[in-house]
Amino acid sequence: MFQLSNQYNKLLDHYKFMAHNGYRRTDGNFVSKVYSDAEPLKFAESIKKIAKFFKSKTALDYGSGGSDLDNIQLTNDQTFKNYVGLKTIYPFEPARNTGKKRKCDLVLCFDVLEHIFINDIPWVLNDLFSNAKQCVIINVACYKAAALLPNGENAHVTVRPPLWWLGQIECISAIYPEIYWALFTSEGYQNANFLGVYRMKDRLDSKNFVQ
């Protein structure tokens, strides 16, 4: 249905290099501990509500970086997965050859899509939906990164406004009308907007044309 471009694998090679060797920032500083932050932790409350609504038990952390949500502590006495009500969170990070894709109740994709070459966005979105049983939860950054690729370009290779991302997801969701999706768009590191939880089936079942 969708084909990956040559740029996809070239970018993946860049991210593999950065994961093992570090990267240079736009301010000139060098970072050796790469992509180790667990971005979904900032959205624990929202993920908890969604998981509770669907009675979800499993999740795939698509683009997990160097973190392990299945074991990471949210507080001193509680793990993230227990707090949000999940039994198992599986990692998948191709830049580190970590984990593998599998069909889960939820698919979490946080701060990943902006790192994907624009031609390959539909392929990745389709991949997210195809691995979800209930809901895909996405957060995408709509601003330039502090990190630079080894070739000197910005690590956020696809920077687009929130409504652009909304349109991309709505188009792919038409292929999976039963699967819900939730979208957060960030126009700053600590500035996320929630665009809601939807599924295409509800729109198809509506008697109205304007949605």
Task: Provide structural commentary.
This protein is of the alpha/beta class and 211 residues long. The chain has 6 helices and 11 strands. Helix 4 (121-130) crosses helix 5 (162-173).
In terms of structural class, how would the helical and strand content be classed? Answer: alpha/beta
SSE pattern, N- to C-terminal: HEEHEEEHEEEHEHEEH
Number of strands: 11
Radius of gyration: 17 Å
Comma- or semicolon-separated keywords:
6 helices; alpha/beta; seven-stranded mixed sheet; 211 residues; single chain
Spell out the blueprint of helices and strands.
Layout lengths: L5 H16 L1 E2 L5 E2 L12 H11 L3 E5 L10 E3 L2 E2 H5 L3 E6 L4 E2 L4 E7 L10 H10 L1 E10 L20 H12 L6 E9 L2 E8 L1 H5 L7
Summarize this entry quickly.
The chain has 211 residues and is of the alpha/beta class.
